[in-house]
Structure formats: structure tokens, C-alpha cells
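Team,

Forwarding the record for the chain on the shared tracking sheet. I've put the sequence and predicted structure together so nobody has to dig through attachments.
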Amino acid sequence: MKNMNKLFIFLVLAAAFVFAGQANAQTRIVFAKGASSKTLTVTVPANGEKSFSVQVKEGQVINIGVSGDINVSKTTEFPVISVNLTNGEEGVDNSQDGEGYLSILAGRSGNYVFSVANSDKKRARTFKMEVKVTNDRADFAGGEEVEQ
């Protein structure tokens, strides 16, 4: 019976580590010294998603743009690549997304996580993604920040 309890505890801990690793499986965006933007080549598998994170201060603007193989599939009228803020706080952060971009006005200092998803069920997509952080609120693509 003691061995069964030890085995159960071991399996629970192992499962917790696996899920914790998956929840935090994101690529951290780090800019070169003196730079405020970075361009990456990203491949997202068919019907898949990748997560990224960037550290910013309150009031900074994060602009993410994707270009290249994000075209409309034969079955939908929208680009198959979408960019979404994963950990935004309602009433604190402002975000605006559209075809091929995501713009965030950070309402707090910290780590912002965003995902890039590929809705094409048949093939992986490879494209360019630019992540840019500025101190100019006018760079927020959503216009004026919303009072909530």
C-alpha cells in the first residue's frame, strides 16, 4: 500500500511538471542592446499555436506585425495567421488587433504574453513577425486609450 501511495504522489508531481512546462512554453523576445524592435522568422504548424512574451513598463506600446505567408485560405475569408494578447488585464491594458497585427498599450509593468495561431488545417505557415516596443502612446494602433 505504501508503494502505491508513493507511486500516486510521483505520478501527480510528474503530471504537474508537464502541465507547468506547457503553460510556460513561450519564446521570450529580447531586443539587442539599444534596439526597440526585433524581426523573427516564425513557423507555426497546421492548426497550431506558438506563444511569445515581452517585458515592458507601464505606458509603453507593443506593436506586433506579421507578414508573408499569412494569406487567406481557400475555406475562410480571413488570414489564417492571427495574433492575440494572452494575458491582458481588462480595465488595465488596451489592445487592438486586426489582420496581421496586434497593438497593446501596457497599463502595467510586466511580462506580456501573446500567441500566434495558424488556423490552416492542412499546412504549416512560415512568416516574418516584427515586435516593436516604444514609449510613444501615439504608436498605439487603437487610437486613444479607453477609460474603463
